[in-house]
Amino acid sequence: MHLGPYRLPNNVFVAPMAGVTDRPFRQLCRALGAGYAVSEMAASNPRLWASVKTARRLDHQGEPTPKAVQIAGADPAMMAEAARFNVDRGAQVIDINMGCPAKKVCDVAAGSALMADEPLAIAIVAAVAAAVDVPVTVKLRTGPSPARRNAVALARALTSAGAAMITVHGRTRACAFGGHAEYDTIAEVKQAVDVPVVANGDIDSPAKAAFVLARTGADAVMIGRAAQGRPWIFREIDHFLRTGELLAPPDLAEIRSVLRGHLIDHYAFYGELQGPRIARKHIGWYIDGWCEDRRFAAARAHATDPTQAGTDDRGDAVRLRDAINRAERPDVQLALLDDYLDHADDRIAVH
């Protein structure tokens, strides 16, 4: 798959998620099989560009190409200026956010609120595409509400205005993240435009990714919440799409290595004061993921051989999360995790 001049290694992408897809997380996902990653959204307001928070969001040091920055806003001239600002600082793709349903974003007519103002949405893409000489992409939803799914007509207009790729989350703005994603609208978008189309929403396994690609005809899938605490999902999906075979899940030793590496990079990126606080959510997602995986493995072993039973370590996991949330230093968080993982096999005792 190609995006502008760039040949992407595969068609399994990392979704931009505010507060999640920072540089350490993007680099980890790319190392574990993601073919493309987009930064968490950065504001188009130039008054915010000098802030530490925005500077971190625009930090792509050491990332593989293409380096993609997502911008959000509702003023065409300001969005064009933000695009130029980011390209001057190394961005190789500019992604326009028309998909975020968060109230604070939509209240300023940005994010998915733009889908209700089609002329403005089109003007923004045209202004940004005219301002920079890199691919301009758009991430949107199926429409403002279930009664007004306008993604097909809008995608057609946006590509005419200069969009080089369209990503569609299979929910409307009104749906936020509730209910289930629908894929028929994404299929219609794919039929309506000549640029690559990426399907997003509720893709949480290799089988689901294959189903969505077959159902929509999309060129790629984009994974968001399912990658939280499970960054290896990208290699699992990529392998399944290429071979039809399921990879074995990571063992505890690899999970430990991935988590420690992620955290060490995370602490270096955010510093010893903010690092542990921001890391809490990531650690919580890993804990949730491995507890669920281990409960599933224990149940599967019991179904195969009723003489085998596993204990449930949810209580220990809750205590670990509480301790992690109280820890204020990187070394304390790492020590707590090491102690927990050192004794993990003891908690799933096979009888």
Radius of gyration: 21 Å
- Tell me the β content: 5-15%
Low-confidence region ranges: 295-305, 346-351
The SS-based structural class is alpha/beta
Largest sheet properties:
9 strands, parallel
What's the mean pLDDT score? 88
Distance between the termini: 50 Å
Count of beta strands: 11
Q: How many separate helices?
A: 13
- Global shape: globular
Order of strands across the biggest sheet? 4-3-11-10-9-8-7-6-5
In helices, the fraction of residues equals: 40-55%
N-to-C SSE series?
EEEHEEHEHEHHEHEHEHEHHHHH
List its salient traits.
351 residues, nine-stranded parallel beta sheet, two-stranded antiparallel ribbon, 13 helices, 11 strands, globular
Description:
The strands form 2 sheets. Strands 4-3-11-10-9-8-7-6-5 form a 9-stranded parallel beta sheet. The longest helix is centred in the last third of the chain and has 53 residues. The radius of gyration is 21 Å and the shape is globular. α11 packs antiparallel against α12. With 351 residues, the protein is an alpha/beta fold.
